[in-house]
Every structure is written in C-alpha cells, then in structure tokens.
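Dear support,

Our group has been running a series of protein-ligand predictions, and this particular one with guanosine-5'-monophosphate is the one our PI (initials K.S.) wants archived with full inputs and outputs. We had some confusion internally about which version of the output was final, so please treat the block below as the authoritative record. The input we submitted was:
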Amino acid sequence: MDCLFCKIAAGEIPSTKVYEDDRILAFRDIAPQAPTHILVIPKTHIPSVAAITPEHSALIGHIFEVIPQIAQAEGLENGYRVVSNCGPDARQTVHHLHFHILGGRPLEAQMA
Ligand code: 5GP
Ligand code: ZN
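Confirmed final output from the archive:
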C-alpha cells in the first residue's frame, strides 16, 4: 500500500522517533507548528478516526495511555493539545490515523 505513515512505521522512510512499541509509533512532525509537535500513529493502517471500529478499542486506548507519557517526557507540564484531522473539511492530508501532540507555547484559543 502506498501510505507514507505505513512506510514510516515500517522504517522504510526515516523519522525522528520519540516512542515506539509493538503497536504504535510516535515521531516528530516534519513541519512543526509548535515547539513540540509529535505525531502518534498505530502501526496498522487505519485511514482516519472515521474508520475506527470496536476492534480498535484496545489500540486506541493504548495510544491515549502513551500520549501523557510522551507529553511528560517532552516537558509539557503546562499543557498540550491532541488533534486528529479527519476528512477534507478538517484538511487531513495523510490518510493514516494520527494524533498530533502540540505544545511548548500557549496555543491559539480557537479550535478552528
Ligand atoms: P494532517 O494534515 O493529515 O492532519 O497531518 C499530517 C502531518 O504529517 C502534517 O503535520 C505534516 O507536516 C506531517 N508530515 C507529512 N509528511 C511527513 C513526513 O514525511 N515525515 C514527518 N515526520 N511528518 C510528515
Ligand atoms: Zn498507512
């Protein structure tokens, strides 16, 4: 499958990893929008939030257990934002589920 994040998960395209286990990978965004900008992905291909099913519950729960560990390791004690863009209106550009972790400065008040 021609998927950028599947290739990153497989190590075929290099990334700056900040966390990895058997199920998920976290790496720095190539075009950071905040001092800390990390992407957390499942290693298995899920196209977006819209494709999450009950089969993925444990995996999604695991992602959200690891996110605070990454935030703590990055020193984001002042807070951070977790974002997942889903579909064209949200301007999703990579069609492999990913959660942005953004922090390291006060973020804009508005969500959109
Ligand atoms: P989306 O717009 O789909 O929510 O987010 C995709 C993100 O992937 C963007 O923030 C973009 O900068 C990032 N990105 C795109 N290509 C690469 C890449 O090759 N490596 C890394 N580390 N990030 C990428
Ligand atoms: Zn993929």
